Amino acid sequence: MNESQLRNGIVTVNIYDSFTSKQYNDALNTEAPTEDGNNGAIPSYNILNMSMNYRWKSWGIGATINNLLNAKYFTHRYDFWGGKFPGAPTTVNVKLSYRVHK
């Protein structure tokens, strides 16, 4: 985390990595993918994320970028769905906040 004074407010910038190791779709840890795609190893992946925030008095504005480098990856399947699911692409979230003091 990096926090700096800017004019009358504070800027905070965070960059963080999320690593997920290799996963399997079945209890037997099948490596080779099956024809229907329901079983087989899912490769490991890294996702880089970033957030930026500016606070001034009671106000705040910020943005979060998930999957900053637009990594292509798959997530595990769920028991009631077959196959592997593509991971989320780059997404950006923006927020505006106001803190009420008592």
TrEMBL record:
GO BP annotation list: siderophore-iron import into cell
UniProtKB keywords: Cell outer membrane, Membrane, Receptor, Transmembrane, Transmembrane beta strand, Transport
SUPFAM superfamilies for this protein: Porins (SSF56935)
Cellular component annotations (GO), alphabetically ordered: cell outer membrane
Chief location of this protein within or outside the cell: membrane
Entry's localization field: Cell outer membrane
UniProt cross-references to InterPro entries, sorted A to Z: Beta-barrel_TonB_sf, TonB-dep_rcpt-like
Membrane topology classification: Multi-pass membrane protein
PANTHER family per the UniProt record, alphabetical: FE(3+) DICITRATE TRANSPORT PROTEIN FECA, IRON III DICITRATE TRANSPORT PROTEIN FECA
Protein name, entry field: TonB dependent receptor
Source lineage: Bacteria, Pseudomonadati, Bacteroidota, Cytophagia, Cytophagales
